[in-house]
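Sample intake sheet
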Amino acid sequence: GFSRQMVEILNKHGVSFSSFDIFSDEEVRQGLKTYSSWPTYPQLYVNGELIGGLDIIKELEASGELDTMCPKAQKLEDRLKSLINKAPVMLFMKGNKQMAKCGFSKQIIEIMNNTGIDYETFDILEDEEVRQGLKTFSNWPTYPQLYVKGELVGGLDIVKELKESGELLPVLKGEN
């Protein structure tokens, strides 16, 4: 119950955090009590410093101090915009340039590699939040998704059409 309350407070304040299940490692569970001189759980650490347990976090929340001391999670939309603009040509796919993990991704990689244009990839299988969020953000329900200069070009079918019409290279160069 205390851990659940702590997580709810951190989520409510948009805090970027990770957790460790102390029941998964008895040595860590006992050792952390000694290390921190804090006998109970949960324990919140920020930048390696113990902040305290649930009661202290509730006090910090009430005083408004919690918002100033904890790192904020990047909003999903901002994160997606940042990823889309990570490189001039960004491909969101299953797998990566070296190892496609589905037939559609494999086909688009082959087409992209034959253009000679440099591009970056993002493996949507590694991040479920991005995988689901990008579908909504782009209003495009499937993968792969190709972006040029932050704008959605489309998926495999559109890339194939652009290639066949001779328009792919100009699009990848941002000329269209």
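Comment: Residues 2-12 form the longest helix (11 residues). Strands lie at 44-46, 49-52, 89-93, 120-123, 145-148, 151-154.
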